[in-house]
Amino acid sequence: MSDAEYTPPPVWVWDKANGGQFASINRPTAGAQVERALPVGKHPFQLYSLGTPNGQKVTILLEELLAAGHAGAEYDAWLINIGDGDQFGSGFVALNPNSKIPAMLDQSGPEPLRLFESGAMLLHLADKFQAFIPQDLKGRTETICWLMWQMGSAPFMGGGYGHFYHYAPVKIQYAIDRYAMETKRLFDVANNQLKETRFLAGDEYTIADIAAYTWIGNLYRGDAYGNTREFLQLQEYEAVGRWVGEIDARPAVKRGRLVNRPFGEEGTVLRERHDASDFDALKPGVL
Fold this sequence. Notes:
4-stranded mixed beta sheet, alpha+beta, single chain, 9 helices, about 5% strand
């Protein structure tokens, strides 16, 4: 029976072999699968992550905070290799019951705080250091609106478009058309806003920009999902391109994008980051 003729059965049954590239890590149940404690370093913030768009949001903000003089934002970034199932270890699940990267432990206060969901981490850090979020009610509200817009949009770009266009074991036109349309619509939302304002929430660079940039920037530059830049004609979104280019050039963004990257030539990425001096080991010209 072809996919076009598929009729759902009365009761769905999980078929592990039908999961494509991510069959080994996707399943319909939650919780720890193995006892495995997490390492803990010396800094106030312990990040357990991978250099995907969601992971890069947090490392970029931490590097931006440090660059802005907030020494209390020092952090250890530990690699969580989701392909190996690290996110199902008991220590990681204790921080994030959803078993998704990133997860964080904030041990800067009187009692440790667990943090999961990248948007929640950005908001927590911005509020803690009163940085990269406006302090007036109008500006703060606008920033949070755009932050939540990004959090709601990412599944359409990644799990929707990215999965069916690039990763799915079979190409289904209906699914690709559906999510390609939505991805282009989301680019148009951002493009229309950025025609009017320098950054998403206004003239100030905020956590809303950091959150959206890691997803939109990857697609716009052609760094994600194969031939996506041409397929979706993303060069048409000129205001988005101006915004991506401006954020690309920020030194803290360059550093944050390199943290917890498991792939890449030696000296061009940091699998883990435990001190600011770790960047000194990178090859000349990388930053």
